[in-house]
Amino acid sequence: MRLLIVGTLEGYITAAGKIAMKRGAKVSHTDSIEGALNALRAAAGADLVMIDVKLDVAVFIDSLKAERITIPVVACGIGTDAAAAVRAIRAGAKEYLPLPPNAELIAAVLEAVAEESHSIVCSDPAMLATLRLADQVAPSDASVMITGESGTGKELMARYIHRKSRRSNEPFVAVNCAAIPENLLESELFGHEKGAFTGAVARRLGKFEEANNGTLLLDELSEMHPRLQAKLLRAIQEKEIDRIGSAQPVKINVRILATSNRNLEAEVRSGNFREDLYFRLNVFAVAIPSLRERPADIPMIAEHFLKKYAEANGLGDKRLTDDALLMLKAHHWRGNVRELENTMHRAVLLSRGEEVGPEAIMLTSQMLAPEGSAQASIPANSPVANPFAGPGGTVPAAIPSALQPSTPPLVMAPPAALPTSYGPKGAKGPGYGNGNGGAGNTTLQALIGRTVADVERDLILETLTHCLGNRTHAANILGISIRTLRNKLKQYGDEGRPVAAPGNEERATA
Ligand SMILES: Nc1ncnc2c1ncn2[C@@H]1O[C@H](COP(=O)(O)OP(=O)(O)OP(=O)(O)O)[C@@H](O)[C@H]1O
User: Fold this and answer.
1) Whose CA is nearest to atom 13 of ligand 1?
2) Measured between alpha carbons, how far is 440 from 404 in angstroms, rounded to an integer?
3) What is the predicted pLDDT for the residue at 274?
4) Where are any strands of DSSP class E within 79-214?
5) Is the pLDDT of residue 98 over 80?
6) Would the pLDDT of 424 be above 80?
7) Confidence check: pLDDT of 505 > 50
8) Residue 401 has pLDDT above 80, yes or no
9) In angstroms, what is the span from residue 178 Cα to ligand 1's centroid?
10) Which atom of ligand 1 is nearest to the CA of 297?
11) Could you give the domains of the chain?
12) Rg of the chain's alpha carbons, rounded to an integer?
């Protein structure tokens, strides 16, 4: 949980910040609305904003809306100022917290926000049974190994176990072992002393110390190098760690949760994962069923994301039609909940009006549905089999190219359905969706002669245009970080190319 405090809070910043930090929040502070907006724009990250009512809360919330930054805002002011409280709530603040800060109130607000963004939506008996198991293991201090296919909600489950544990008021720290190179992961986990290696200009505490008294999630643990596995085993067994470059062990009290989407037993058998570490961590195993194994969850999760993304885009209420729901239920969800989430995100952007029908549902990997699955048995000319098919199974000429999912390959529409050009007007080169109805080869051939940088620029700008200038959506679809996207856009802007402004719909759709 990251908290951004804006303004002076009548001199209570330190007190409020300390309370929040004790509850595991990371707190940052800025004096002004502009400072807060800059921090949020720069993806500095916050899950909650606490703003002084003396500042113009309405202007702040309007700016967030205009830039499509979704973040709950809580206003804080001297308790007796009822008029200010009413103004703040009318302006869109979620809560009004009276000052001086009250520890219980702040804890309740932080908890509500954490619940909101990390709640597990489910109704299928298979998932409910898994949750019951998680409820049973949560209060103990035992290590838990959470397994499941990619995108099933392993990290979400880890947060759930932490929330339900006796450590819930202490930090929850997650480290993705696959995302960090081995040499950096060691220092990330265990920290280092000043001068421990070239570039170690100051002491840095690692994630174990950051998570002290709380929970440390080792995400994608199976990717950890065997050398580090040995160091991790020692940390768990001895309950102490050695910062790199230090001869002084540091005592730690951390509960370890780990996730893996590989079969760890097989990894142990093949010698890639230490058996002793496996048994240390696998005290309890929580296996999350794939979405295929819990079909009753699909409608509920779909509605959940429909509401979330409609709200985030300021698009009002949306409702799935029966046909659309049928299509979702029939799909083979290889990417599990994450794939369903992305599909609903796209559906929100594609649909017009209140109803979300099959034409707004763009599925990935349909060709990969196994023989005999529900998907495979749907007639080809059914709107469920191909939501873009018109009467008689024809496919309309243009599907917004950039809204097609990036991975795995989109198989919804054959190449003939690609728009005539992906490139922005006036872009050099032939464009890489030449609309000639040829196979993928022809599309690829059209790229020959263009530089990677050119193609990348066109793809990024076109995706942004289709996302109506929304940076977050575009970055999601492109599979790059928002920071990378912003850097690229800045570069294109500096080169004098038109870049769709955030929320500038006229220009973005022109
Ligand atoms: N039951 C659920 N209800 C609501 N959202 C969910 C649910 N399960 C997963 N999600 C959402 O799906 C996305 C993927 O979840 P998460 O990152 O926890 O999966 P994972 O199994 O850890 O993924 P990976 O294997 O890639 O590490 C997240 O946005 C998460 O919030």
Assistant:
1) 338
2) 15
3) 94
4) 95-99, 144-147, 172-176
5) yes
6) no
7) no
8) no
9) 17
10) 1
11) 2-117 (3.40.50.2300), 128-289 (3.40.50.300), 292-393 (1.10.8.60), 418-510 (no CATH)
12) 25
Single-letter code of the amino acid located at 489: L
302 CB under 6 A from ligand 1? Answer: no
Which is higher by pLDDT, 322 or 380? 322
Measure CA of the first residue to CA of the last residue in the chain; give whole Å.
Answer: 39
Nearest CA, atom 9, ligand 1? 153
The C-alpha atoms of residue 82 and residue 71 are separated, in whole angstroms, by 24
Q: Residue 412 above 70 pLDDT?
A: no
How far is Cα 164 from Cα 156, in angstroms, rounded to an integer? Answer: 12
Which residue reads 């873009």 in tokens?
A: 388
| Alpha carbon of 152 to ligand 1 centroid (Å) | 5
Tokens of 479: 């599979």
How would you label 104-130 residue by residue, b for 16+ Cβ within 10 Å and e otherwise? Answer: eebbebbeebbeeebebebebeebeeb
- Closest residue (by CA) to atom 25 of ligand 1? 150
At 483 the pLDDT is: 65
| CA of residue 153 to ligand 1 center, whole Å | 3
Give the model's confidence band at 435: pLDDT under 50 very low, under 70 low, under 90 confident, else very high.
Answer: very low
Nearest residue (CA) to ligand 1, atom 15: 153
Q: Which residues, in sequence order, are CB contacts of 103 under 8 Å at separation 6+?
A: 19, 22
What does the block give as tokens for 109?
């607000």
Per-residue pLDDT reduced to its tens digit, 200-250: 777 878 889 989 999 999 999 988 988 899 999 999 999 999 999 998 999
Specify the residue for token string 């006796």: 166
Give the pairing of strands 240-241 and 250-251. antiparallel
Cα–Cα distance measured from residue 508 to residue 405, given in angstroms and rounded to the nearest whole number: 20
